Amino acid sequence: MKADPQNVLTGAHYLDGNYAIAEGAIAAGCKFFAGYPITPSTEIAERVSRRFPLIGGIFVQMEDELASMAAILGASWGGKKSMSCTSGPGFSLMMENFGLGIMLETPCVLVNVQRGGPSTGLPTLPGQADMMQARWGSHGDYEVIALAPDSPQEGFELTIHAFNLSEKYRMPVLLMTDECVGHMTEKVIIPPPEEIELIERRYTDKKPGEAWPYQENELISPMLPVGEGYKFHITGLTHDYRGYPVINAEAQAENVDRLMAKVKENVDDLTWLEEKDVEDAEVVVVSYGISSRVVQPAIAKAREEGIKVGQIKMVTVWPFPEKRIRELAGKVKALIMVEMNYGQVYLEMDRCAAGRCETYICGHAGGTVHDPGSVYSTIKDAVK
Amino acid sequence: MSVETTKQVSDEHPMEHLLRMDRIPHIWCSTCGLGTTVRALAEALEQLEIDHDKVAVVSGIGCTGRVAGYLKLDSFHTTHGRAVPFAMGLHIARPDMKVIVFSGDGDLVSIGGNHFIHTARRNIDITVICVNNFIYAMTGGQVAPTTPIRARSKTTPYGNYETPFNIPLLAASSGAVYVARWTALHVRRMAMSFAEAISKRGFSLVEVIAPCSTLYARLNKLGTGLSLMKFYHDNSEIRHGADLNDIAIDYQSKIVVGKFLDVEKPTYLDALNHHNAGIFGDKYKPYGGGNGSD
Ligand code: SF4
């Protein structure tokens, strides 16, 4: 399906990342936004609240982030594409109902414009230290999908992609950006609506009485619409295909295995890497989001000096591109992770490298993007 | 903690079409006040002659939170305290449907207290049924923000000394348009209030004072669930329109019941549409028509 022309501001714009994310959501057909103000994400809510009244969307400023996340799940079950945005402290609060969204298998999009943490941390300055929280922040075992835009343009595009993945896999999808991308203003090209491909929600074609919220032996079941006589039940408790609670180890295994398999069995579809000069590289710099732009001058300088450095930008951070990293680990001398934290996604990279090459973390506590000099010296260390 | 009941429910329950018979027997203890309350809701839905396809029930966590699992309606068992905002999202997405939150006192006014007052303030058009049994039952009988002073619980073994919430006063002062209270034995009046609340446009609250036979009654040596249910009923006084400041509940004393508030106020969506029509004129298409899929 193509985007609805009334939702798409086709043309070239100068937008900051937060506004671009809002435009991406609107272009994707988002019609319900519940959020709570928090720096540095608030401009997304502001833009949405300004744009929604004339395109049939509803923006609600909630009493807190617990309620925001709960409300977007309710709206999603009501048939709306829904989203919220936040930053670290609010993300912590949303983890409760993010887990419910995973368990109920509810499509929706949650944006985290990361700032420095822990706690109140650095409200106005960037960080990438919520990446492991994105992966593991809610209790229990589950898999997530998280995307990381490196620019306002990608903020627009990946928000649409996030909505599409949330419908395709019937689960909440995370857009993990940061203060720097959120507040950076660049040219954003919004294509004509007929060039924006949207994945619409799959509803059951079975009649009431024959359909269950999670069809037996189906990895991703079509949803049941509310108000149409299906009279279905869903619960955050461990449940069977009928949506009925079943409190035992077998049901737990079946339920949780399936939630994880949705992502694990589709890692190839979900993995999105942009590679440059990797084929002949002896060192590969891996990064995501804003960090993948900051590393470029350092890589260019090293290449000028004849060091064979390649780059991988992870557009999808979760699920982690395990296969590709394993492959590379057998070929290169070293893998370097550059991220604005002390090595969160690095841990995954190091695990996948499994000792077959050297791994380095070039990280810091956040508050500013990397000094390209620090990336350059890590490259030098790696080839020593 | 709730005790599995093994007793067989009679073959044909009169409300069978509104219950998930494939989930019976339920987990509630016998003589728990929840039974009559669920029955009263089923009766209200019958009285109303509304399309049951267009009714959704949302519950939080707790013994009362299990209600969503037994009603044969689109039903959502959510997280602790968040039934109300989940219901709000559902209602806004599908304003043509009746959305009923059915949950307990701890769920709604303790962990969900902030959502309760703000959803009332916005006058979101949902109905909240709050079963108040003065205790956290599912977790084994701890003190609640509704436990009367002097009552014992597992975490107030020497009696409670915190002032409890007066739930009707809390709802009304936050912005609810319909507020009533009954005990679990006022089955017919309770059903009537449920029907009125569901028909009412705006945030409506019905509090039901119900015995928790297994924990509250036992810990306070108040007899069986049935005798406590009778006690609540017999010690109640119907006072419609009572001053909400006068209806706080003391330990084992008089319970004022009745319809306390029934006023008209624009709902959240009324206010939104009215406001935006004033700002944008003809360019604005009122939100909430049809099935909301526009
Ligand atoms: S509220 Fe009390 S009596 Fe009712 S089911 Fe729970 S534990 Fe049993």
Radius of gyration of chain A from CA coordinates? 21 Å
The SSE order of chain B reads HEEHEHHEHEHEHHEEH
Numbering strands along the chain, what is their spatial order in the largest sheet of chain B? 2-1-3-4-6-5-8-7
Number of domains of chain B: 2
Tell me the count of domains of chain A: 2
How large is the count of helical segments of chain B? Answer: 9
Subunit arrangement of the protein? heterodimer
Catalogue the ligands.
iron/sulfur cluster
The chain-level structural class of chain A is alpha/beta
Low-confidence runs of chain A: none
Distance between the termini of chain B: 44 Å
| Beta-strand residue percentage of chain A | 15-25%
Q: What is the H/E order of chain A?
A: EHEHEHEHEEHEHEHEEHHEEHHEEHEHEH
Shape of chain B: globular
Number of helices of chain A: 14
How is this structure best described in words?
The complex is a heterodimer of chains A (384) and B (294). Chain A starts with 10 loop residues before the first strand and ends with a helix. In chain A, strand 15 (334-339), helix 13 (344-353) and strand 16 form a beta-alpha-beta unit. The radius of gyration of chain A is 21 Å and the shape is globular. Chain A contains 14 helices and 16 strands. Chain A folds into two domains: 11-195, Rossmann fold (3-Layer(aba) Sandwich), CATH 3.40.50.970; 273-383, 3-Layer(aba) Sandwich (Rossmann fold). Helices cover 37% and strands 22% of the residues of chain A. Chain B is an alpha/beta fold and 294 residues long. Chain B folds into two domains: 18-263, Thiamin diphosphate (ThDP)-binding fold, Pyr/PP domains (Rossmann fold); 266-294, no CATH class. An eight-stranded mixed β-sheet of chain B has the order 2-1-3-4-6-5-8-7, sandwiched between helices. In chain B, helix 6 links the parallel strand 5 (178-183) and strand 6 (204-209). Chain B is globular and about 65 Å long. Classes of the chains: A alpha/beta (384), B alpha/beta (294). Chain A binds chain B through residues 32, 34, 53-54, 56, 58, 60, 62-64, 66-68, 70-80, 82, 96-97, 100, 226-237, 244-245, and chain B through 20, 22-23, 52-54, 56, 58, 68-69, 72-79, 81-82, 84-94, 96-97, 114-115, 118, 272, 276, 279-280, 283-285, 287, 291-294. The complex binds iron/sulfur cluster. The site of iron/sulfur cluster has 13 residues of chain B, from helix 7.
